[in-house]
Amino acid sequence: MAPEETGPETVGSDEVILQVSPRSKGGTALFDAPEPITADNVDAYRSTPEDIAAASAELRALGLRVIHAGETTISVAATPEQVEELFSIKLRKETKAVHPLREVEYFAPAVDAPQEMLLQPPGEQLAPLIEGIAVAEPPILMESPIPPIAPIDPAAYRYLFVPDDIAVVIRASRAHRLGATGQNVVVAMIDSGHYAHPFFNYHGYRILGVLLGPGSADPGQDTLGHGTGESANIFAAAPDCQLRPIKGLNDPTGDFNVAVSSTPTPKVMTNSWGYDVDYPGFVLTPYLLTLQAAVANAVASGIVVCFSAGNGQQSFPGSHPDVVSVGGVHVNYPSLDLEASSYASSFDSSLYPGRHVPDLCGITGKAVNIGGSAKAPSHLLPVQPGCTLDGILPTTGAANDGWGLFSGTSAASPLVAGVAALMRAKDPSKTPAQIKAALIKSATDVKAGSTFQGDVAGPGWDKATGAGLVDAKYAWLVTMGDMAERFFTASPEEQQRMVQSGAMGAFGPGFADEIVTTLRTR
Amino acid sequence: MTDRVAAEVVLRSPAGTSVVDGGAVDAESVGRHLPDAGTIAAASRRLSGLGFQIGQKGPVTIAITGDGALFERTFGTSGPPGEPRVPDELADLVVAVTFPERPQLHV
């Protein structure tokens, strides 16, 4: 059974976190396991969905806050007073160095013997459902700015590092060497938040203060890890942009209002989420109509708005006509041959007749089955240690190392947004529609593979990948000015004539050679 | 457990239309459906006077929070599946009140 999804949660530092173990299917409590619990025997220590649901309901009835109901334990938050009263135990505050530069305070049972730290369920209703309750201890954080050498899961494929591997594949490193780094362009991202992982500081990336969308709290925390990870994809494409994280997703319309009103004004936005609603017969709800307007207003305000197409979903607002709709292309190793990702969405919009998703693509993993569900573990990304995505399968070796392998179309949108930042830095006068057109015009054709929906990639534009994979170098060149635009919209024969006639010389010595080299290596 | 409720308040544009009138709204047409600054300020004052906490004000909607009882009293519901009714005292400014829907992340 899949864990109960309760969404990202933040935990106050004055709360006590408990791990509650509902009775195990095998009849032996996980606290009494006679042997180490491994992947081979863990099923005996899982609980039935019925027991998990019943125990969660009883815990809530006691006034405890259920953070996450997993297959082996339920995470619960409570005040110290609640714990002391319910379990007839005294707590004491302890301090632990979890990182060379960080200490945390936490509550622990005021007992000496380890066996006394296992709490028994209170009340007649809970006792038959629960085999024990442990007070959580903060883990030692092992995050490094440099990613771990993670084992490659036998079902998966070689993963890619940020920023370098990603920058090479989308040809951003070539643009960077020409000085195109997205300097001072603010890229806003509505997501689960941003954690100050040392990866960002060591690379010298610039991150503006986290803004809170409606209903969000704790701006320094990203307990899901998604926003933090996707930030790294933006910087792989545009290392000198300024990231504006907006911690939200409780109310995306409100999040958009916050983004558009923020200063300095964002020039690009990336959104790796959506609603699986774009099917025949669906009518946007009043709330989604407000979101439609918020997205349109952002574009009308001059912001290039990128949205992921979805991982099999038919996602709105990814299908809105004004946005850059970003699908997924998988990169094979070692050839770097491209194929449409079987994990990514492609579809004809029902909400907006004539609109096809995607416009173009970023890099996405292709679908592999790991742990009983489809995954796309292509990008190794920094996350808050111990967060949900730190523990996602396939493992990076530890669930608290501050790195996770995940790359659906969530990873694709920030890459295209980063490339848009390169273009806006080059020519701030370009409108969102012009940037979108140039991104599409300059993409690399993808001719193989098929998407989740079964659309097949082939030569030229296709339903699977739209125009193909974003090409940072070519996209940047396209924004060079009128002459460059004329050049890139010309036929190959006309392009050759322009180079030979010296018409491109206006850009200075070496520019024509640069273009020719760029075209030859596509 | 708290019973704080959050909602987005949709306001009338100077032309009398709004963003929830239905149909596609894009970058070209959205401006015709947005409230002006005076409407946003007036609606914020009135909602605040009713006891709601005002969050982000515009440009598209106003974010409000309040306890469930306040929402019940003012809009006749404190959350889905109930559909909020706009009371007469707000009807000249407010077109609709909508409860946020959470999206899916494309992990």
Task: Walk me through the structure.
The complex is a heterodimer of chains A (522) and B (107). Chain A is of the alpha/beta class and 522 residues long. In chain A, the strands form 7 sheets. In chain A, strands 9, 10, 11, 12, 13, 15, 17, 18 and 21 form a 9-stranded mixed β-sheet that branches. Chain A has a 5-stranded antiparallel β-sheet with strand order 2-3-1-7-6. Mean pLDDT of chain A is 90; it is low at 1-12. Chain A contains 14 helices and 25 strands. In chain A, β2 (65-69) and β3 (74-78) form a beta hairpin. Chain B has 2 helices and 5 strands; from the N terminus they run βαββαββ. Chain B has helices at 37-49, 68-75, and strands spanning 4-11, 53-57, 61-67, 94-98, 104-105. Chain B is globular and about 40 Å long. Chain B starts with a strand and ends with a strand. Chains A and B meet through α7, β14, α8 and α9 of A and β1, β3 and β5 of B.
Residues in helix, % of chain B: 10-25%
Contiguous low-pLDDT stretches of chain B (5 residues minimum) are: none
Uncertain segments of chain A of ≥5 residues (pLDDT<50)?
Answer: 1-12
The number of distinct β-strands of chain B equals 5
**Overall pLDDT score of chain B:** 95
Q: How large is the radius of gyration of chain A?
A: 25 Å
